[in-house]
Amino acid sequence: MPLSRVLDEKMIRWVVHGFYEEIRRDHLLGPIFNAAIPPEAWPGHLAKMCDFWSATLLRTSRYEGRPLPPHLTISGLGEAHFRRWLALFRATVKRVCPPETAALFMARALRIAHSFRLAVAFNRGEDTIHVKPILEESLYSDRASE
How far is CA 40 from the centre of its chain? Predict the structure, then answer.
């Protein structure tokens, strides 16, 4: 089946809502997200994230934000947080999507995570030469967290 017949706005919504449901309950990431996003702001955040993934994967033009700046203000944001984000994201897309679509979501998420990690390190004045991409295979060691 062609990807375009599988990956649609409904699937993006399932991924986004399922993923952030996990994030909000997570012991590591939940406190960060719940402190940054008040309960009444979650519907808007979820809609914005659906727009982001729609623009990213379906090439719609719905997302007009800048996703990086809010992340630069989170003190102590580090590799453990990005690894956890990716592990939860992978678990969600594997649960919600067919394999080919899950792979597409993960490829993009891995690139986004690496870009954000580089930007966070650069913003803190750290040497970015040692910031290596997190590989999906390395997330399997985080399996107990799924």
Answer: 21
Span between the terminal Cα atoms of the chain, in Å? 29
Does the pTM surpass 0.85? The reply is yes
Report how far residue 80's alpha carbon sits from residue 57's, in angstroms, rounded to the nearest whole number. Answer: 26
Give the domain range for residue 28: 3-145
Residue 92's domain is classified under what CATH number? 1.10.490.10
Q: How far apart are CA 98 and CA 116, in angstroms?
A: 27
The Cα 87–Cα 100 span in angstroms is 18
Domain count, the chain: 1
Exposure string for 31-47, b = 16+ CB within 10 A, e = fewer: ebbeeebeeeeeeeebe
* 23-31 own/partner pairs: CB under 8 Å, 24+ apart: 23/85, 23/88, 26/84, 26/88, 28/80, 28/81, 28/84, 29/81, 29/84, 29/85, 29/88
Cα-to-chain-centroid distance, residue 4: 21
pLDDT tens-place string over residues 3-20:
556 899 999 999 999 999
